[in-house]
Amino acid sequence: MQNNQDHKNNNAILVINCGSSSVKFSLIEPTSGLSLISGLAECLTTPQASIKIKHSLNDNKTEQSETRYLSAPFDHQQALNALVNELKALNLVENIIAIGHRVVHGGEHYSKPTLINEDVKNTIERLAKLAPLHNPANLMGINACQKAFANLPQMAVFDTAFHQSMPEKAYLYGIPFDLYSQHGIRRYGFHGTSHYFVANQAAKMMNKQLAQCNLISAHLGNGCSVTVIKNGKSVDTSLGMTPLEGVMMGTRSGDIDAGIVIHLVEQLGYSIGQVDILLNKKSGLLGVSQLSNDCRTLENAMLDDSHEKSAQAKLALTVFCYRIAKSISSFSASLTELDGLVFTGGIGENSSWIRQQILNQLGLLNFHVCKETNLATRFGASGNIATNTSRPCWVITTNEEWVIAQQSAQLLS
Ligand code: ADP
Fold first, then answer.
1. Which protein residues are within 6 Å of ligand 1, measured from CB?
2. What are the C-alpha distances in Å from 347 to residues 57, 186, 324, 375, 377?
3. Exposed end of the chain (fewer CB within 10 Å): N or C?
4. Can you list the alpha helix ranges (DSSP code H) found in 304-380?
C-alpha cells in the first residue's frame, strides 16, 4: 500500500455504488487501481446506520480501519458528507477529478459510460420501471454527490452496458414482439462491469487481445450470472430483463416455469407482491436449504452430519451447482471456439467445493479440475485451476470499482 502523500499529484476517481440503504465508496487511482480510501455506509435511515472507512496510513505498509457512527438523521446525504469530511481531513479532496457511479439499469440507451446531465438523470429515472430496487437508489447517490461535490463531473457506468452487444436471438423472449418494441421487455443482463473486468484479466493471462478471446465467465456471489464472450464481446448472459432470470442465486430463484407464477396466484392465493418476495428474497439457496443464503454457512452445515439441516444444505448446493453447469454448457451454442472458463464473485473466488462440483459436470466441454490447485486458489489468489490436459479454468478476483474508475477517467479525457 502506498502513502497518501505519494498521490498528492495524482488524479483519483471517487467510485460510488449506492443501494437503497447503503453507500459503498472507493477513491481509486485509475491507472494503478490503488484504492486510497474505501468504505461502506450501511443500514442508512435506521438507528443502526454506520459508516466504515478504511484508508492507507503513511508508513507504506499498513491499513487503518475506522468505524464511525453517524448521528441522526443518517441518510445517504449525511453518509456522503461524512465521506467529504474524511477526505478533507486526509487532504484528498483536491485529488478527485470525477465521481464514477455504478448505475444498474441503462436499458438500450447506454452501451458506454456516460457523463451525467439532467437528460441522463431523467433517463435513469424512467428506467426505474425496469429496476425499481436499484435505479432510484443510484439516482439518490448521484443527487447526493452533486450536492456534496458540486464542482466535479459525475459519470454513470451501467451494469447492463457490456451486454448491449447481445444479438436479437439472445435478447428476445419468445413472447409477442410488441412487448419488446413498445415496452422494452427483453433481456438486458447485469454484472456487466464484472464480466468485462475478468474477461480482460483472462486475456492478459493468455497474452491475447480481448477482441481475440472466447470465454464463458461465471460471476457467483449473492447474485449470480453466467456470460458468454465472443471475440471480447458479450453475446449472451443468464440474467434477463430483471436480475431474477438465469441460474439459482442466494435468495433469488433464477429460471422457473412462468406457469408457476400463475399457479401461485390462481391456485394458492398469492398476491403479486407475495410472489415478488417469494422469488426474489425467499428462494435460491435460502429457499431450498431452509437454512441460509450464505454459501459458507451451507458448506459448513453440509459437512457436519450432526447439523439438522445438513442434507437440506447439500441439496441446495447440489441444485445450485447443477444449474450453473447447465447454463455454462448451454452457452456452447453461442461459440465455435472456447479459450476457457472464468470463476469470480465471492463464491467463485473462494469456494473450491462449488467450483469442483461445477467442473465435474463439464467433462464434455473438456473441463477437468486439478484438486490441489483448486484448493490453493482462494482468498484473493488467482490462476488456472484446471489440469494440464483440460481447457483452462481461471479464478479471477473481480474489481468492478477499478473498471468504473478507469472508464470514468477515459471519459473525462
Ligand atoms: P455480492 O453479490 O453481495 O457482492 P459476494 O460476491 O461478496 O456477494 O459473494 C457473497 C457470497 O460469497 C456468499 O454466499 C458467501 O458465503 C460466499 N463466500 C465468501 N467467502 C466464501 C468462502 N470462503 N467459501 C464459500 N463461499 C464464500
1. 221-223, 250, 294-296, 299, 345-347, 350-351
2. 31, 28, 12, 13, 12
3. C
4. 310-330, 345-350, 352-360, 371-376
Ligand 1 atom closest to 378 (CA): 23
The C-alpha cell at 239 is: 440474467
Q: Which of 6, 75, 159, 178 is catalytic?
A: 159
Confidence of residue 131 (pLDDT cuts 50, 70, 90): confident
What residues pair up with 362 in beta bridges, in sequence order?
Answer: none
304 is catalytic: no
Cα–Cα distance, 230 to 35 (Å, whole number)? 31
Residue-wise pLDDT for 313-327, tens only, equals 999 999 999 999 999
Over residues 232-272, the pLDDT tens digits come to: 999 999 999 999 999 999 999 999 999 999 999 999 999 99
- Domains annotated on the chain, with CATH: 5-158 (3.30.420.40), 207-400 (3.30.420.40)
Whose C-alpha lies nearest to ligand 1, atom 3?
A: 222
What is the average per-residue pLDDT within 310-314?
98
Distance (angstroms) between ligand 1 centre and the Cα of 348 equals 8
